[in-house]
Write a structure and sequence with these properties.
GO molecular function: copper ion binding; cytochrome-c oxidase activity; heme binding; oxidoreductase activity, acting on diphenols and related substances as donors, oxygen as acceptor
Helix content: 55-70%
Function: Catalyzes quinol oxidation with the concomitant reduction of oxygen to water.
Pfam family, one: COX1
CATH architecture of one domain: Up-down Bundle
Structural class: mainly alpha
Distance between the termini: 67 Å
InterPro entries: Cyt_c_oxase-like_su1_dom (IPR023616), Cyt_c_oxase-like_su1_sf (IPR036927), Cyt_C_Oxase_1 (IPR000883), Cyt_c_Oxase_su1_BS (IPR023615), QoxB (IPR014233)
Radius of gyration: 25 Å
Shape: globular
Family: Belongs to the heme-copper respiratory oxidase family.
Strand content: under 5%
CATH superfamily of one domain: Cytochrome c oxidase-like, subunit I domain
Order of helices and strands: HHHHHHHHHHHHHHHHHHEHHEH
Number of strands: 2
């Protein structure tokens, strides 16, 4: 009986019981569906063992959309709880868990896989490569992320969710104040998924630097590929800091060390410094790929090459450097002194300059362009004014003296969301509509898409603009209730209405996918947008080998030059193509990592030892395995090309 008690929820509620039932029914439905339609073999061959960067990109995309609704459900509960004064919808403990998982899921398990989806799918195509540099490592990266996501999600129904905030500050996150295993889940889920992200960073940097098509110098790469390169450089420098911090936090919780305690030589502010040395670059890890997508879309639908290409590249490099020099602005009110505050205030405001350069470059690209308003373009245009509001309020927060008024209020919450939603979510949704025909061979319905874009944009303003006012009035973040006399009620009710609008918008995205899957025409070209870069020079959907002949590049707009400047993009003839074999090891290894993390969460040391041994066995197997891949013959290539051309 004691064994099962450790898995019990410390404070069960009807919502948690309902979640248990829903998870159980979902698992049963999936297993029954796969069995009834006899898809277990297909699932194993095409998805669980795939090393194809395109399949991995699609799995990242599906995961991101699922986590969007998982984190969105938390957001609705938060706004519903705060919609009226003295609300009893959630108690204090449940509210703490909800806003903790909301932030963690949205940043780590929704936004990160969204950008990974596009980097995985698009970057090898944009540089004319067959695949990424390390295909099996790429598969392992995804499955580690996925198992980390599953670990954080089962916490809600087994043992209890983390409750110390998405930043998990110590000493709040130590055993004294977070007694359940929820924070253990946080530590191990982020370590496992973060390991996968770090692997992706190494893989993408190697791919971009070593596998570009002939003629594609660094300054001829598409701007999205540049954004991916800079983003992954940040990942390689930032994520090890988070990993070390998580290991130290885990040791404090499981082995009674004193890294982050308030006594016995510990320094609780050490966690805050580690977290934000990772956390602020993380913002740009999310935003820079979205900027790259906006650049591709605005250039395509303006009918012009991107204005200020070199300054766009330079601004990204400057942002990546400055992103590591601003973390202390999170501590302006923590007594570190005027000199330190002044230095970090200057670096915080300085990072707005290269971001402003980008906005002006997009506006100059639009100037005198032949603008076509598609759904992707609409998101890109709506992003500019809404993101500017978020950016300007960020500069306000960067003034250390003024931050004493703004710090830990809803003003800060509004700023963060007004940056992340237009800066990341709009970018990912724009990319979803733009690249959907390349991924799946049909276009998402434009009418539904445009309605959705307007609903999401207006709802974003409705949900978060009131928080600026309630924050200036003194409403603190993380408070789960408030009295009617504060006057916060009207602002929070408006925000709740905006949150409902956002929920409607995201449901419409799912409906659009369903509707377009059933009714959209499959008779589209490989280049339905009249685009400019290499990913549109191959078939839609893309064949396994990406390009039958390796492209030769002479400019940043290689496809555009081939269409309108008579550049021969594919010289030469068909030759056999070497491709990697599928492998089940990455999936199996990730499952062992899941069991390893679960064992440590509950302090089950024998399973922890067994799974650790299992991890090393899998690594040893891969080290000793002789797998030289396979070749696709010229005959197979000719047959595939003929079929895809519809000849």
């Amino acid at each position: 009986m004691e064994f099962f008690e450790r898995f019990a929820i410390p404070h069960p509620s009807p919502a948690i019981y309902a979640s248990m039932v829903a998870i159980g029914l979902t698992v049963i439905a999936i297993v029954a569906g796969l069995t009834y339609f006899k898809k277990w073999g297909y699932l194993w061959r095409e998805w669980l063992t795939t090393v194809d960067h395109k399949h991995i990109g699609i799995m990242y995309l599906i995961s991101a959309l699922l986590m969007l609704f998982r984190g969105g459900a938390d957001a609705i509960m938060i706004r519903a709880q705060l919609a009226v004064p003295d609300n009893k919808l959630l108690d204090a403990q449940h509210y703490n868990e909800v806003f903790t998982t909301h932030g963690t899921v949205m940043i780590i398990f929704m936004a990160m896989p969204f950008i990974m989806a596009f980097m995985n799918y698009i970057v090898p195509l944009q540089i004319g490569a067959r695949d990424v540099a390390f295909p099996r490592l790429n598969a392992l990266s995804f499955w580690l992320f996925f198992m980390g996501a599953m670990l954080i999600n089962i916490s809600f129904v087994i043992g209890g969710s983390p409750d110390a905030g998405w930043t998990s500050y110590f000493p709040l996150a130590n055993n004294e104040f977070s007694e359940s295993v929820g924070t253990n889940y946080y530590m191990f889920a982020l370590q496992i998924s973060g390991l996968g992200t770090l692997m992706t960073g190494i893989n993408m940097i190697t791919t971009i630097l070593k596998m570009r098509a002939p003629g594609m110098t660094l300054m001829k790469m598409p701007i999205f590929t540049w954004s991916a390169l800079v983003t992954n450089i940040i990942i390689v420098f930032a994520f090890p800091v988070l990993t070390v911090a998580l290991i130290m936090g885990t040791m404090d919780r499981l082995f009674a060390t004193n890294f982050f305690t308030s006594t016995n030589g510990g320094i609780d502010m050490l966690w805050a410094n580690f977290f934000w040395i990772w956390g602020h670059p993380e913002v740009y890890i999310l935003v820079l790929p979205a900027f790259g997508i906006y650049s591709e879309i605005i250039s395509t639908f303006s009918g012009r090459n991107l204005y200020g290409y070199k300054s766009m590249v330079g601004s990204m490099l400057i942002i990546s450097f400055l992103s590591f020099l601003v973390w202390t602005h999170h501590f302006f009110t923590m007594g570190q002194g005027a000199l330190t505050n002044s230095i970090f205030s200057i670096t915080t405001m300085a990072i707005a300059v290269p971001t402003g350069v980008k906005i002006f470059n997009w506006l100059f690209t639009l100037w005198r362009g032949k603008i076509v308003i598609t759904t992707a373009m609409l998101y890109s245009l709506l992003f500019i004014p809404i993101f500017t509001i978020g950016g300007v309020t960020g500069v306000m927060l960067g003034m250390s003296a003024a931050d004493y008024q703004y710090h830990n209020t809803m003003f800060l919450v509004a700023h963060f969301h007004m940056v992340i939603i237009p800066g990341v979510v709009f970018g990912m949704l724009a990319g979803l509509h733009y690249y959907w025909p390349k991924m799946f061979g049909f276009i998402l319905d434009e009418k539904i898409g445009k309605w959705t874009a307007w609903i999401i944009s207006m709802s974003t303003l409705l949900a978060f603009m009131p928080m600026f006012f309630s924050g200036l009035d003194g409403q603190a973040r993380r408070m789960y209730t408030y009295s009617e006399s504060t006057g916060f009620g009207i602002w929070n009710m408006i925000s709740f209405i905006g949150a409902i609008g956002l929920a409607i918008g995201f449901v419409l995205i799912v409906y659009n996918i369903y509707y377009s899957t059933r009714y959209a025409s499959r008779d589209i070209s490989s280049d339905p947008w009249d685009a400019r870069s290499l990913e549109w020079a191959t078939h839609s959907p893309v064949p396994e080998y990406n390009f039958a002949i390796v492209p030769h590049v002479t400019s940043t707009d290689a496809l555009w030059d081939s269409k309108y400047n008579n550049h021969v993009l594919f010289p030469g003839k068909y030759e056999k193509i070497h491709m990697p074999n599928n492998s089940g090891i990455p999936f199996i290894l990730s499952c062992i990592f899941f069991a390893w993390g679960f064992s440590f969460v509950f302090g089950m040391w024998i399973p922890a030892i067994i799974t650790t041994i299992g991890i090393f066995i899998c690594l040893g197997h891969r080290s000793l395995e002789k797998d030289y891949g396979r070749y696709i013959s010229v005959k197979e290539i000719e047959e595939t090309e003929t079929k895809l051309r519809g000849v």
